[in-house]
Amino acid sequence: MKFGFTTMAAASVLLAAQAASAQTEVEFWHAFTGRLGELVAEQVETFNAMQDDYKVIATHKGNYSETLNAGIAAFRAGEQPDILMVFEVGTATMMAAEGAVEPVYKVLNDAGVDWNPDNFISSVNGYYTNTDGDMLSLPFNASTPVLWVNRDALEAAGIDPDVDLTTWQKVDAVLDELKEAGAECPLTTAWQSWIHLENLSAYHDVPFATKDNGFAGLDTELAFNGPVQIQHIAQMGEWADEGKFIYAGRRNEGGANFRGGECALFTESSAGYAGIKDEAEFDFDVRPLPYWEGVEGAPQNTIIGGASLWVMAGQSEEEYKGVAEYLNFLSSPEIQAKWHQDTGYLPITAEAGELTREQGFYEENPGTDIAVTQMTANEPTANSKGIRLGNFDQIRGIIDEELEAVWAGDKTAEEALNSAVERGNGLLRRFEQANR
User: Fold this and answer.
1) Which string of DSSP letters, residue by residue, matches 314-382?
2) Residue-level pLDDT at 436
3) Full-model pTM
């Protein structure tokens, strides 16, 4: 039997459609836009092109909070994705959601993929494991805060761009010089609670909350109104009053100001690297997060932010196999090293960090290894291994409100932090009651 061109073309289309339909689709909901969204899409395309059994479909569902809420709503409606990106403050919520998730270690083991939990960096992985050390979700975009420096802005103010900024006392002196030189934005920040209270506490080895920052029990209470935290927020309040600290917003609104060249110093995630490298038209570098000289134990280690990937319950065995293959792909040294180098996020495995070093990336891009060193230089303590609190997203909202009152001059640091602790403890008791 002979086929004409039209018949052959139709047959090819049919065969292609049949092959495509044979693929198992894996739904992945995430919170990334811009350059990070492009890099996620690149990872998905790479995975989809290297095998024919599974097709990952990545969908942006809004910011971190919106993505978590979308996942919860979808599960209640029986329409949940296979993989859900959840920021670190949602960890306790996901752990308490019995029946809603499949632990990552179980998904990987059941699928028989070749993986080793010991390959993951403990300071990153520990945030997402249970008390038995089993991985509940896969660390994906783990970052830690650093100090970004606009070298051109310092030079324009007559300041040596290599000036020592290791302590807040030294930062204070530089802010004075910048202001005297007419700088309109000496310092700005992103994620004020994460950097200036959560990481401040860990870096100075003081508790953010009791019960090992919530890791040791739901009956935890907030403790970020201690002397170190009050001193730091009081100093920032003074800088705000004097025009040395410019508050831009609760999330990363200050990033646009820094990338646009308006601000000299910027406390932000190490993952700011992707956007800053892409947009900044000035000479910049990255420094360790400053600490307060004279505080015993400082600098200890900073803690991670970002998100992990949770596997949702209620999917087919074949979908879970696809999930396992994709998560294993994301954890591979080559993919992790590229992700780390492209974004500034931490490599989640030691192998990826070593590969990055072997490839000469740190030597060619000085400072890009600071985040890794800052996280791993010291063995984490009970105060610096992370924070795991129920209703943490809402608690951050309270903290944001109270800090904004300090920046506006409406409250003292002590008044604001005492109020945030009292209000936040109410949310902790509500979460404890609901999960007994």
Assistant:
1) S--HHHHHHHHHHHHHHHSHHHHHHHHHHH-PPPSBHHHHHHHHHTTHHHHSTTTTHHHHHHHSS---T
2) 81
3) 0.87
